[in-house]
Design brief:
Structural class: mainly beta
CATH topology: Maltose phosphorylase, domain 3
Strand order of the largest sheet: 1-2-6-7
Shape: globular
Helix content: under 10%
Number of helices: 0
Radius of gyration: 13 Å
CATH superfamily: Maltose phosphorylase, domain 3
CATH architecture: Sandwich
């Protein structure tokens, strides 16, 4: 059972980005947990090689979510799903 999650560091020229590459065994069902990241209250759902990230409402700037080369903008109050 192997799961890899990287938190990239931001520089003056790069956006804030959470990078995921999950390999959660589907036989174990969905892994779901909350995290607090750079002022965002996030809820992660991992199933197999897919990740869904939901952000609570707020006025924070968006963050980028990456999974296996796919990148999406996550705004407060929204959800992204990447596989």
């Amino acid at each position: 059972m192997r799961s890899r999650t990287l938190l990239s560091s931001a520089t003056a020229t790069s956006p804030v980005r959470l990078i995921f590459c999950p390999q959660w065994p589907e036989t174990l069902g969905t892994l779901e947990f909350p995290i607090f990241y750079r002022g965002h209250r996030l809820r992660l759902r991992i199933n197999g090689k897919a990740v869904q990230v939901s952000a609570g409402a707020g006025s924070q700037p968006p963050i980028e979510i990456e999974c296996r080369g796919q990148v999406a903008q996550l705004h407060p109050g929204s959800t992204v799903h990447l596989a």
